[in-house]
């Protein structure tokens, strides 16, 4: 009986040791996993950085702010420049339209102008419109004078053409200065202008 009782005691002790061993192993594994998760989170927080995305968003915001400033200025400047060009273009268009209306009135009231220049009214009108596209400040009387001067002078001064005279007027030079730049003396320019003015005046009667 004593041997049986000792055997049971031994068997019970072995079972207890086995259970304790399993419990310790499981506890150790659980602690290891817990430390790993904790360490992962702790390492993320331990670096002191902001949550993912916050830094990027802040950078984009700063870049956007800087870019917005430049883009706003650029758009404003471009708008100002565009408005300036638009205003100038409208002024040129209005001026050209006013000059075209005056030319139509002049042609209706003085049909002899085209006859004096040896052209028909339609050709004179279309030529003036083409010249206005280049120089909207050009008056119809200036175009008529340039045409007549070229007709009177071209045979003696080949470089004096209507286009050359119109180019001088478009650059801001007076008719006399333009003729002088094209090779005429001051006296010759004045005489040529006087002759053309007299011929055009007769055509307007």
Explain how this protein is built:
The chain has 205 residues and is mainly α. 82% of the residues lie in helices and 0% in strands. It is globular and about 40 Å long.
In one word, what is the shape? globular
Indicate the structural class: mainly alpha
Q: Taking Cα atoms only, what radius of gyration do you get, to the nearest Å? A: 50 Å
| Total DSSP E strands | 0
Query: What's the number of helices?
Result: 8
What are the secondary-structure elements, in order, as H or E?
HHHHHHHH
Indicate the percent of residues in helices: over 70%
What integer is the average pLDDT? 76
Strand content: under 5%
Biggest pleated-sheet summary: none
How far from one another are the termini?
Answer: 162 Å
Indicate the low-confidence ranges by residue numbers.
30-61
């Amino acid at each position: 009986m004593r041997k049986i009782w000792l055997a049971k005691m031994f068997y019970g002790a072995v079972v207890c040791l086995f259970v304790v061993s399993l419990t310790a192993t499981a506890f150790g594994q659980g602690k290891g996993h817990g430390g790993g998760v904790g360490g992962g989170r702790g390492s993320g927080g331990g670096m002191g950085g902001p949550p993912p995305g916050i830094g990027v968003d802040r950078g984009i915001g700063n870049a956007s702010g800087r870019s917005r400033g430049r883009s706003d200025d650029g758009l404003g400047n471009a708008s100002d420049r565009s408005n300036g060009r638009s205003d100038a273009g409208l002024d040129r268009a209005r001026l050209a339209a006013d000059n075209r209306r005056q030319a139509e009135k002049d042609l209706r009231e003085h049909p002899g102008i085209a006859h004096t220049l040896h052209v028909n009214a339609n050709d004179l009108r279309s030529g003036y419109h083409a010249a206005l596209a280049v120089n909207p400040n050009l008056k119809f009387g200036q175009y008529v004078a340039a045409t007549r001067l070229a007709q009177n002078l071209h045979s003696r001064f080949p470089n004096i053409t209507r286009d050359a005279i119109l180019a001088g007027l478009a650059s801001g030079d007076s008719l006399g200065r333009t003729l002088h730049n094209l090779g005429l003396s001051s006296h010759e320019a004045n005489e040529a202008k006087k002759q053309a003015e007299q011929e055009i005046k007769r055509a307007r009667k």
